[in-house]
Amino acid sequence: MLMSLSFAGALMLVLIVLLLLFFRRKGAGVQLSPVVQFEEKLQLLSQARDNGELAEQDFTLAATELKTQYLQQQQNQQRVSGSPTTWVLGTSVLVLLGTVWLYSLTGHFTALQNWQTAQQLLPEYGERALLNKGEPLTEEEINLFALALRTKISKEGDDAVAWFVIGRIWLSKGMLDDAIEAFEKALALTPNRINVLISYSQALLVAAGDEHLAKAARSLSKVLQQDPDNTDALSMLAMVAEERGDKEQAQQAWHLLLPKLETNDPRYALVQQKLGLMPAAEQNTTAQVSGRQVSVELSISPELAQQYKAGTLFVFAKAVDGPPLPLAVQKLAVFSGTQTITLSEAQAMQQGWTLANADRIQISALLSLSGQVLDDENGPQVQSDILSFDEAALRLSLSLQP
């Protein structure tokens, strides 16, 4: 860090010296020109006087005028030659001070220090993030972990594991395009890795859109070809089918998934509900869902329901202290009036990031025309106060009004 600043200072000093030499040489060249002109003109006047072409009185007046012009030129030249030196020195000092100020202000000192820290702590970050050893990474440490991994790739070449971890980091921060790109780079190196295919499908499912959903379906099919009992793949395949409007394929996937789940799995009650195996009166009760859950009594005004009738309603929970990726999401058709919506550990957007992972949360309800909860936060929305899981089941009321 100090070497970089010293190098910049040395370059600035060299520049100052070169500018000073340039202006001095230029000034010296300009000072010689009036002298030569004065001598030549005075010699011509003398020759004219000696040849009788100019009277003595006229010669005296002309010589006096010539001397006056020469002295004025000398005074002007001194002001001009002194000005560049002063300007160069003043400007150079300002540039040097400005360079140091901008270098500090833009965070280069901090960025360099962070980069060095990230390199030193890369093994520790890997153990804490991937092996759950020690305390979970903070938001700042997650950013440093990603920086260290990118540096590792730039030094050692593409690495499937590094790209996979970077993709997980970007996904947890809601940076869907970056996450998808990272997973694709990992898959280019290891096309059949199940954990990469699962994470890639998660990112595509969250991003939504026909093209993304088609890619997700293909990735999940690859997983099921290798592991037909993979519950994550079956669950996401059912959700992809629902997103694409293929109810028949969704029902088939739910049917395949249900017997593979333990009854205490947070997804068990959700799948029962999807298959219509749960009595209607029990579908919105928290007793039927295991783990942490939040029941939201949501009211939507008729005006907003009409305005967003072609849109999508998202009800989601986010951690107060943690990545911005929602802990749980319900994606529903827009309705008018009041309904109760349950968020549970079964509605996680990313494996390992559920309501069980955060003690303080906020609940939001958002109306979206884009169909993407992460990309349309300008739509009408309402947010709850900060909630704490003092008990496993929470209840609250929210209202969406114009």
Description of the structure:
The protein has three domains: 2-106; 135-274, Serine Threonine Protein Phosphatase 5, Tetratricopeptide repeat (Alpha Horseshoe), CATH 1.25.40; 292-400, Immunoglobulin-like. It is an alpha+beta fold and 402 residues long. Strands 2, 3, 5, 6 and 7 form a five-stranded antiparallel β-sheet that branches. A three-stranded mixed β-sheet has the order 4-1-8. The relative contact order is 0.06. The chain starts with a helix and ends with a strand. It is elongated and about 130 Å long. Helices cover 59% and strands 13% of the residues. The protein is built from twelve helices and eight strands. The model is unreliable at 26-32 and 279-287 (pLDDT under 50). Helix 5 runs antiparallel to helix 6 (176-189) and helix 6 (176-189) packs antiparallel against helix 7 (194-207).
Please outline what is shown here.
The protein has 402 residues and is an alpha+beta fold. It has helices spanning 2-50, 56-105, 108-130, 139-156, 160-172, 176-189, 194-207, 210-226, 231-243, 247-257, 266-274, 302-307, and strands at residues 293-300, 312-319, 328-333, 337-344, 360-368, 381-383, 387-388, 393-400. It has three domains: 2-106; 135-274, Alpha Horseshoe (Serine Threonine Protein Phosphatase 5, Tetratricopeptide repeat), CATH 1.25.40; 292-400, Immunoglobulin-like (Sandwich), CATH 2.60.40.
Radius of gyration: 38 Å
Beta-strand residue fraction: 5-15%
* Proportion of helical residues: 55-70%
CATH architecture of the largest domain: Alpha Horseshoe
Largest sheet: 5 strands, antiparallel
Structural class assignment: alpha+beta
Unreliable residue runs = 26-32, 279-287
